[in-house]
Here is the input.
Amino acid sequence: MKFEIGQKDFLLNGKPFKIISGAVHYFRIVPEYWHKTLYNLKAMGCNTVETYIAWNLHQPKPNEFNFNGRADLVKFLQIAQELGLYVILRPTPYICAEWEFGGLPAWLLTIPNIHLRQNDPIFLEQVDHYFSKLLSMVTPYQITEGGNILMMQIENEYGSFGNDKSYLRAIRSLMQKYAVNVPLFTSDGAWQNALEAGALIEDDILPTGNFGSRSNENLDELQRYFDNHQKSYPLMCMEFWDGWFNRWKEPVITREPRDLVDCVKALLDRASINFYMFQGGTNFGFWNGCSARLDTDLPQVTSYDYDAPVREWGEPSEKYYLLQQLLATYPDASEINEPILPEIVAYPTLSLQNEVSLFSTLERISKYSESPITQTMEDLGHYYGYVLYRAKPKVYSDEIKLRIYQCRDRVQVFNDYQKVATQYQHEIGHEIMLKTPNDEFQLDLLVENMGRVNYGGKLLSPTQRKGIAAGVVLDLHFHTGWQQYAIDFEKLDKIDFSSASDPQTPSFYEFNLTLDQEPKDTFIDTSELGKGVILVNGENLGRYWNEGPTCYLYLPAPLLHKGDNKIIIFETEGIRPETLKFSDRPIYKQLDSKNL
Here is the structure.
């Protein structure tokens, strides 16, 4: 097989070929469902699958790599090949994707003088180390080597971040160093400034556009960019946004299916397409990203449903069937078939079995450290989730003023185990009065990292260092002498549920789901909970928050098994769940929906 970028068309074995692709992020779907997802992609009419590669997933620590479970990229590529799908691979250091820190590993923030996404030897050294491991695994699947990867991306929407062409060329050189030999491309917003800043058209690298509406207008802009540089390439929308992502406290965003199909037809009559997303999936664990704002950043919800043609839980939507009808009219589309449908049940309500206060079992599930001043999560080597900061000041008055400086993202303040206040982003730094009757007291600060930004200039902001950066002021002085407990959610099997419980404090609650048949997909109803995370058999399903709009966590059947299944809720808001409810459909808070 031979794939080329012609002057007007993509060429497959010398013949014009329209790429009809859909985005599937392997890391947002359990591996047991990759085959079903990719089968449904092909059954809709797509001939190609596109995926980002998340650096922070694959290199969680500087000298530690992960290619297992949801990180088993090679298995994903193999399944695509077995199904006869081509692949567009985006192995760039930065991916955006509404993913934690845009895919950049948080440990990069501990490296002195590093400049992210720039032609900086310190940053490029880390990219080189990563590529040396990653690319050796994927290059055997290039179409030039008998595989199914058609092309790869150099950088992602770089024109919305910088214009350092020397950096783009450095990334290209690293890819070539590790035997990437398929055609390369860049993708940017389809306006002239973004394309001029982020593309490498002068080096004959294919520029593509990202947009989700006004197809002809955006394609005209992309063509104008080609014409301005006296170049001729096939037109392609690398991200055609068929829906949108959601953030906490904001209404669900949807897109009218017929409007989508009309825009897709206008695009396909002139260009190739990659549907972003085909199936969005789930931000399991602490992997959700965050939208940058001037003051208060806006974290994304756990669901990455995206209002895509296939929903988070694998159910084809109206968009899917309408697109099937449209794609069937194009000769390069795959054969249309009936999709595989999910099986979803609502399990019986469970009763609470065990409970314990975080404070009672803290030492058993945390990594402990001491320091004169507070350390950030990055400095503690604990990049995601929660850290509890503890001090035992001696005071000489009935009350004392507390202020916390440079803390991200949300902090709960406890005075001798009694919650005094919760502060979130713009509130942090405001004065809190503590009752302290002339004696030593215990001050506990539970800080949650709610997700680093995934887009824009704030990638370089000090606000992306989580935990308490500057320190804690009591009266008018910074307090010295801190104990730090980095809560490790992989140690929850060590929880001592025989210790004291106190529902008014952050607590763990245990339930048991016993199944005598093969498991089915379900949803955990979080509408009566406050804020926290839920783990099933040790797997972190992600965050919930009663602020909405989502009031559920999707629980795929492969995370369950016949027999007993342990479900642990970490609830931070003082709400004691006496029961745990399930649903056979997603649950949303009644906020006004928003259409694109």
About this structure: The first helix runs from residue 34 to 44. The first strand starts at residue 3 and ends at 5.
